[in-house]
Amino acid sequence: MDTPRILLTNDDGIESVGFRALYDALDEFADVTAVAPADDKSAVGRAMSHEADVAEHELGYAIHGTPADCTVAGLGSLCPDVDMVVAGCNKGANLGAYVLGRSGTVSAAVEAAFFDVPAIAVSLYVPEGEGDWRERANEPEDYREATDAATFLVKHAIDGGVFEQAEYLNVNAPMPGEEPADMVITEPSTLYDMTAEHENSTVRLVDRIWERMRDGDIPDPEGTDRRTLVEGNVSVSPLTAPHTTEHHESLDGLAAAYRD
Q: Has 42 been labeled as part of a binding site?
């Protein structure tokens, strides 16, 4: 590609620091149109509004809707002739098989796959530490590893044949360290550690994975996204969008006996 045409979206909102950092990095070599939520729409998955207000923005368009709305609005109307959809950069990692359907960032990329448009979801791992992790990663420089990885992949993945097998890439990057991070091709971890605490009239749902990552208590094997990120590398998982199906003889037997 000479000058790639990019639809850039996210779920943190069009005014977020990570979004602007990624826009500026891509804008140096690509024709970038922002079609992103006007407000924070984190963790809404593939929720869709079906009708959403749109406002012109200095970077493109702000949509009063979800990340999936943004992908459909962009590819279906606002900028249909793009080469790729990039979603991010999200503040907070999107790791593990159980997270993929929850993430608005990843869902925007999944939506693009159904348009047969290559897509990349980009997220930044902000480790838990003293204070609220959400108050960290407030400077464009904090996203440098993520924007470097995204820039490299946008430049080379299509011509390199990556999307002849993968439909979208889920990219997770660490915050900058003393040495530049390496890039590792991974698969989503299957570790799941959600708990529920019931007290009085409230049930509190807790994802224990983040505590375990902070403490280094991660049994994920080499080659998984979470292990790769904890070790300080950029994780790139090549994924496909449709749910897979398998032939099940036992289910065939149940179907055959349905009206017996």
A: yes
